[in-house]
């Protein structure tokens, strides 16, 4: 099954619970927008593209209890969108998906009534989900040129099928190379504190049969310095107009270490991750999560009682460390102000 | 109590079990050299200076069962030394302490008989222990110049009292600054996989009342890039003649990130950590430990069954990233070939 699936008959969103993987395959059923918001906050569904689509389905669920009056219907859906919007501040795909859904809701409810809007929103959420998978497959095809046969690839966090509706962004590139018969090997950063690498990326690669070695985050530099890593590919939660990349905490360190060792550092992300309204990474809000998620691992305390941990969930990698950005519209390179603006404009033209 | 204490009456070495901290304060009693070797391999005692002194006491324990004949006595002690020497390959203090003990054993056994040698070895082990504490206090005093009031200090792993007989090397510098009334704050890298930072450094700083924030290893770069870190100080397991530093895995990454952000990166280590017989870091053996220590945390599996992890326990930081090396003979700077050789020569002169 996919990361998320909408059951139209039961009017429910089913999510593969990512807090329980890899040891248990458990599904979460969301019947309301609030259920979806809670699943996003609790990291049961995570990954920028996946939470965008999950939030879209959250609005579909909200239409179930919305009033029939067009203005009230719009208000009801907008309130649900506000709750979903506040769940996680860094990934822009969430905002992007909600904005697309709200624009459709307003337009259709006004013109054709709320029943038509309900159905249009469900249709749009399906479209967003299908677009996501298609974009990932195109990224994989474009990224293929960057992954030579025999390459040792390093990745951080999980930008795989689980971070998207299916196939993955950064892991989509890895997967495309593997499916093309290239003999690759992946170094998987475990990615503290939530261990997305050890729990999720390792699980996906194991299922795909891609050779891998799990490492702690602090080993990445060591293996780079020994000449064991040929390229890095990671996902993104938001890309500013100048090419600065917000992604899972630790990405910045990986990028600096790759730069210092002359190793290409690639970012794979859909156009919806690019936020041209934000000039640079300095303007991207960084989510702070709880100390507890650091000082406990699987419920086991690892530090003395009373010790407080910092927990920025993301960091910003300046564009100067980014060799290229793989999108569904091609591989973008510096100067990013221009290449990103062109790609976003191209995508808008296609969508219009 | 200290990291290790010798009970002359019971002829036993007591170690504070560092695998059980911070949740339990448990002692391990070693009655034989093999007990000590096992405690070193199992990380119940760790830290380059501490394992050097522990191994010295291991030889004292070996004398208990040594034959009275001088040649056989020497052979017996040498065999025990070989076993201890093989426990951990990277830290040179272990080799250094064993070599000093063996030289004394041979000299005294030959000249004054084995009973005198027994007592001379016990005396020398005590001297090594006292020298260690005195060296750390001197490092603290020299390092004081490097830690301004209000400084945010980042440290990796544990180079504190627990890594030595008492007081600590890198944490000795932190402690000296704190005791001098400077208002400092420490970012503590948790230091996967063994979590020496979260478990041991946090525990020591808590007891000393030094303000701190625990972070995952992959957050260090983020806080450096935000201007939150003023200096880095770490310990060392072996320093090559050219100033390359072998230390806990992840140190290299911290050094590169500090360099990239214009932050001074200091190493604090006794002269016994300098190995002028090794030209550069490329010649320092890096201990490989088990995959299991990575894929399980406190006995809880964090990765899918069957996933293998790499586990280099140390890495090498090239001398070009090292701002200065704090020793008990002063603060050494580049060119390290000269400053290290001078310091080692000076120490030999004093010891002779």
What would you note in describing this structure?
- The structure is a homodimer of 352-residue chains.
- With 352 residues, chain A is of the alpha/beta class.
- Chain A has helices spanning 33-41, 48-63, 70-85, 93-112, 114-143, 170-179, 196-208, 220-225, 251-260, 292-295, 336-351, and strands spanning 4-7, 12-16, 27-30, 152-155, 185-189, 212-215, 231-234, 238-240, 245-248, 265-268, 274-275, 296-297, 300-301, 314-317, 324-327, 330-332.
- A seven-stranded mixed β-sheet of chain A has the order 6-5-4-7-10-15-16, with helices on both faces.
- In chain A, helix 2 (48-63) runs antiparallel to helix 5 (114-143), helix 3 (70-85) runs antiparallel to helix 4 (93-112) and helix 5 (114-143) packs across helix 6 (170-179).
- The mean pLDDT of chain A is 96.
- The interface between A and B is large, with 53 and 53 residues.
In short:
The structure is a homodimer. Chain A is of the alpha/beta class and about 350 residues long.
Which range does the strand content of chain A fall in?
A: 15-25%
The termini of chain A sit apart by 32 Å
Largest interface: A-B, 53 and 53 residues
The whole-angstrom Rg of chain A is 20 Å
Considering DSSP H and I runs of 4 or more, what fraction of the residues of chain A is helical?
Answer: 40-55%
Mean of residue pLDDT values of chain A: 96
Main sheet strand line-up of chain A? 6-5-4-7-10-15-16
């Amino acid at each position: 099954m996919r990361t998320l699936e909408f059951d139209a008959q039961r009017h429910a969103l089913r999510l593969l619970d990512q807090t329980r993987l890899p040891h248990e395959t458990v599904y979460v059923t969301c019947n309301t927008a609030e259920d979806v918001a809670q699943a996003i906050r609790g990291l049961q569904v995570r990954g920028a593209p996946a939470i965008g689509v999950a939030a879209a389905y959250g609005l579909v669920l909200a239409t179930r209890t919305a009033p029939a009056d067009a203005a009230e219907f719009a208000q009801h859906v907008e309130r649900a969108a506000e709750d979903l919007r506040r769940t996680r501040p860094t990934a822009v795909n969430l905002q992007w998906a909600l904005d697309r859904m709200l624009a459709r809701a307003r337009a259709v409810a006004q013109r054709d009534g709320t029943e038509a809007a309900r159905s249009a929103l469900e249709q749009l959420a399906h479209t967003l989900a299908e677009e996501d998978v298609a974009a990932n497959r195109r990224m994989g095809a474009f990224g293929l040129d960057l992954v030579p046969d025999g390459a040792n690839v390093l990745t951080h966090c999980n930008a795989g099928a689980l971070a998207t509706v299916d196939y993955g962004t950064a892991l989509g590139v890895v997967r495309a190379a593997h499916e093309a018969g290239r003999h690759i090997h992946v170094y998987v950063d475990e990615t503290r504190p939530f261990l997305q690498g050890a729990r999720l990326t390792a699980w996906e690669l194991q299922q795909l049969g891609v050779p891998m070695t799990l490492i702690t985050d602090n080993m990445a530099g060591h293996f780079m310095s020994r000449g064991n890593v040929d390229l890095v590919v990671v996902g993104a939660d938001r890309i500013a107009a100048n090419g600065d990349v917000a992604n899972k905490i630790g990405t910045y360190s990986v990028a600096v270490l790759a730069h210092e060792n002359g190793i290409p550092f690639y970012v794979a992300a859909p156009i919806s991750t690019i936020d041209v309204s934000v000039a640079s990474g300095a303007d991207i809000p960084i989510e702070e999560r709880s100390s507890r998620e650091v000082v406990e691992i699987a419920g086991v305390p690892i530090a003395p009682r009373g010790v407080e941990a910092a927990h920025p969930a993301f960091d910003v990698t300046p564009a100067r460390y980014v060799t290229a950005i793989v999108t569904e519209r091609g591989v973008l390179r510096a100067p990013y102000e221009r290449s990103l603006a062109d790609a976003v404009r191209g995508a808008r033209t296609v969508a219009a």
